[in-house]
Automatic annotation (TrEMBL):
Domain DUF4873: 3-99
Pfam families reported for this sequence: DUF4873 (PF16170)
Stretches the record annotates as Disordered: 93-130
Protein name listed in UniProt: DUF4873 domain-containing protein
UniProt-listed InterPro entries: DUF4873 (IPR032371)
Upper lineage: Bacteria, Bacillati, Actinomycetota, Actinomycetes, Mycobacteriales
């Protein structure tokens, strides 16, 4: 899991563009061998217009304004829920709009994100026993 992103992001939904606070997180899904990401968009309905908040299933574009680590990135997401506080919960459809950790497919045989960590699977343990 990477550090995720917490800060300002530009949201484009139905041709309307606003800037809101977001909290995004990713994790590695071992079933698919890919990183998944999701997040929370705070005060999106108020920023757009109270009479036209996006509903569940709406696709939108998220552009992280300042990662401090890499160039600004854009991603596509879908609204999955609206929480008790009115924040819109989203699931990523494309790659995360900030640097995420490597996918299983990105790792070469024997490579681990941190080689100083102990072996965690049978193939790694066998390699270290040689």
């Amino acid at each position: 899991m990477s550090e995720g992103y917490r800060g300002r992001a530009e949201i484009l939904v139905d041709g309307r563009q606003v800037v809101v606070d977001v909290q995004l997180a990713d994790w590695f899904d071992p079933i698919s061998g890919r990183h998944r990401w999701r997040g929370r968009l705070r005060d999106l309905a108020a920023a757009l217009a109270p009479d036209a908040p996006p509903s569940t299933g709406t696709e939108l574009t998220v552009t992280v304004l300042d990662t401090g680590r890499a160039a600004t990135a854009t991603a596509t997401a879908r609204v999955t829920d609206i929480d008790l506080w009115g924040s819109h919960m989203i699931d990523g459809i494309s790659a995360a709009p900030y640097p995420a950790g490597p996918d299983e497919l990105d790792l070469l045989d024997g490579d681990r994100p941190d080689p100083d960590l102990p072996a965690t699977d049978t193939a790694d343990i066998r390699r270290e026993q040689r």
